[in-house]
Amino acid sequence: MGTTAESVRPRTARRGFQLLVYCVQFFFGAWFLYNGLNFFVTFFPQPSGSSPLSHELIGALIHSKLFAVVKSLEALTGIAFLANRWVPLATVLAFPISFSIAHLNIVANGDLFSIVTGVVVIALNAIIALGHLDRFLPMLAFNQGDPSVAGLGALFGCAAPEQRVPRARNGRGNHLRPWVHVLGILGGVAATAGFEGWTTSAHGPRSSAHYASVENASMTPQEVALTFERIAFTEHRPQEAVARLLGPSFVDHEAGGAHFGDRTAYLRHLTSVSTEVGAIRTAEHVVVEGDIVMVHYIRRDGAGTTAGVDIYRIAHRKIVEHWNVAQRLSPESAVTS
Question: What's the pTM value of the predicted model, to 2 decimals?
Fold first, then answer.
């Protein structure tokens, strides 16, 4: 009885560890595939960094096209994990990506959620590596011996039987039953979708408002003014422009400002102007002097063409004061403009 119980315990422990590694592998693979493909096919807003430093770093990676290479490798590695093929190779390829993710989150971002994310990514990758440690142990030999063609022979099937690549009893390289494999893939995808859906939701730690606040923190006065113009007039989202880029003590000095001098009243005015059907506004020139930004624009609508200048004063990366001068142009002047 004692011998039987002692023999069962190691088998149970081995089976439990195997199950843990498979669960981690399928979640990790789905997460890598989901985030890798998201760079090319948008499932959720592309993370732009949770600090000014990481925002600049990610922007540089994207503009240099290196991010596309990394995300392609990330997606291919995720496919290998989900397919349960070439897992040791995928584990090795995943480690540089995992370390980059951890460094970005722990060093560049530095907030609690980012630190936990960085540690978890390394831990998940490490668990998969431990599950296949026997494949890596020959790489750790201190005295590795001389180079040999035995590996090439094993790769192409012309080596001695004892040197050939070992296969599992079912001949497919693993012992997972098909239905268990499919269930593992579906579980990994579902867990990843749920996790990403929560983190990028309006109340999640990586919401669009979170990334907008980070982007604001790295803006120059000119970028603040032009971003406001783009969101309010080009993209016709005045409420977002006001909420994101106008300071709490905002004052409007535009002619007739007694009617719309604070944030709330200015939003009503801005909504009526920016959402007018058929109206097109383009920024022609930008002049910056310290914290003052002047935007010369041309606005065309059903009543004709208007030339104007919006003047913004920026403080702490928010618009705190606004002035405007505008003139309706004659048809001849409009054509010249």
Answer: 0.65
d(CA 199, CA 27): 16
Tokens describing residue 63 = 């503009």
CB contact at 8 A, 21 and 130: yes
Q: Do the beta carbons of residue 320 and residue 250 sit within 8 Å?
A: yes
pLDDT digits (tens, 9 = 90+) for 207-234: 777 777 776 777 889 989 998 998 888 8
Class (C level, CATH) for 220-336:
alpha beta
- pLDDT for 34 beyond 80: yes
pLDDT of amino acid 103? 94
pLDDT tens profile 119-138 = 999 999 999 999 999 989 88
In the chain, where the domains are located: 2-145+176-214, 220-336
Q: What is the pLDDT of residue 78?
A: 97
